[in-house]
Amino acid sequence: MTPLEQEVLEIGLRSFFKKSFLSVCTLDELLKLAQVVPPAREMQTVRVLHCVEWSAMSEGVRSEISRLIVSWFGLPAFDPLARPVPQLPAMVEIVVEAKRQGFFSRLLGPGQVQ
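RESULT FIELD:
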């Protein structure tokens, strides 16, 4: 698998788990990309839950199905809910710093109010 395919797979898996329901359609596409064929019985078990809201599943079923799906892709350290922390542009940091200053400091400029 190329680095691009690996990254797309991880993004796709995060998106899959972020949805409010289990999408077998998305899962099938991810499996094709990874060239993975899960055990038939396991896949059939997951297919039964197609379009079922994650919230409608017990914690145990949700956890076990998630673990099972992640295991198919051979990503043992993969956390489906982890999101990369975006880097804030410098301009955002300037705006945040400006908001920390008092009203008169912003009005009169730095060093004018003591």
